[in-house]
Amino acid sequence: MMKTVFPQNFLWGGATAANQLEGAYLTDGKGLSVPDVLPEGKDRLDIVNAPDYDFSLDEDKYFYPNHVGIDHYHHFKEDIALFAEMGFKCYRFSIAWSRIFPQGDEDQPNEAGLKFYDQLIDECLKYQIEPVVTISHYELPLNLVKKYGGWKNKRLIDFYENFARVVLQRYYHKVKYWMTFNEINSAAHFPVMGQGLVKSNGADDPKNIFQAWHNQFVGSAKAVKIAHELDPKLQVGCMILYATTYSYDANPENQLAALQANQANNYFCADVQVRGHYPAYTKSLLAKHHVALSDLQYTDAELALLAQYTVDYIGFSYYMSSTVSVTQTDLPRVQGNLVGGVKNPFLKSSAWGWEVDPTGLRIALNELYDRYEKPLFVVENGLGAIDQIDEQHYVADDYRIDYLRDHIQAIAAALSDGVSVMGYTPWGCIDLVSASTGEMSKRYGFIYVDVDNHGQGTFKRYKKKSFAWYKQVIESNGQNL
Ligand code: BGP
């Protein structure tokens, strides 16, 4: 038998986010959060970019699937038991900020919200599942947007620091692995999720996006500081959306464009969070967006914080690659996970136009490790699909197994290349609401949940074919694929 390349302590598991599965959107004192008011539907991205979008609930016009999610809030014991049955070594989830600070700016946390995560974490530990916590995953208390204008306002740094302190102090003895912000770099394409910015409150002025990022970098550094002061052994990571970026051809103009797209889309945030300082290309990147350094508010003390409190590891999501051409404007384009590009003739796409590219994951791992020499954690990967459930309540999701197998092989190849990879947590290990469409019908899970786009269903859980497959992948430490 071939020796597995996966280290013995490799963190196999799965990943979710509070706002996409918990439901119970006003239960036990939870406040409204940004995703609670984002309309569902394929044109969600356009709606929030309408000039008059004002974060109001429009319940006559839209259903908001995340208001019920998969009702994980009331099913978490059953769900974690299923994760344990698959043999999860870890489980990545997020803490809903609006459960802990319903308005975001209170002095004292909401004890009922904390109680939920007390139970969730204890349930993981009961099965020796290592909790991996994203402090902020696309979920900002709505009041922080309405009253303060979202992350472009420096006051958010203090509110985030309070939130991070409360959860770190409460759980540091139970949770070793943390991430400060989910896909922090995604604001370049869709700032509403992470930064609370839409057109009507400043998303169309790039200065606001860069200011919001700076404020988040400072918040992230403060969280690292709090964590390391509580226990130097805590591991706090950044989390970036990584789309391996190719030039369409060997034309040097396109090669240069790909390099610059890499800097802007993949590296800018990680460079600051991992290396502790703004990269050399910052001024030229800002200039491209007609922003000057003097337009931004920052202090020497903040820059010192960034330098001192860098992250311990790099978490990233990888779904697809992106291809760039600036010389040919007539090439067909593809959608991608927020980062689009021109169609790559060597790749096939998912139904949502995300180009499936396992070799791109091996390249991503090598690029990130070459650049930073820090442990890497693949904290999201997977195939969104419309699953067909038969009368026996079975989903034969061979397409998902194929996708995951190819990507696990890519991780194994990268390990053989010498890259340090800590773990793998496929996205949406149990079906949940999609971030980009706000719908239930785009599913990623090993576990099917009977609920539709209108929140209707029995909420029963059913194991898909991929459930048994992933179980034996974990059991064999990545050998039986
Ligand atoms: C990432 C997000 C997740 C998740 C995933 C899949 O960008 O971190 O929250 O939803 O993508 O995307 P989608 O749900 O749009 O298919």
UniProtKB/TrEMBL annotation:
Gene Ontology annotations for the cellular component aspect, listed alphabetically: cytosol
Keywords: Glycosidase, Hydrolase
Residues at the catalytic site: 380
GO biological processes: carbohydrate catabolic process
GO molecular function, one term: beta-glucosidase activity
Entry keyword Nucleotide-binding: no
Protein family per UniProt: Belongs to the glycosyl hydrolase 1 family.
NCBIfam families noted in UniProt: PRK09593.1 (NF007158)
Name of protein: 6-phospho-beta-glucosidase
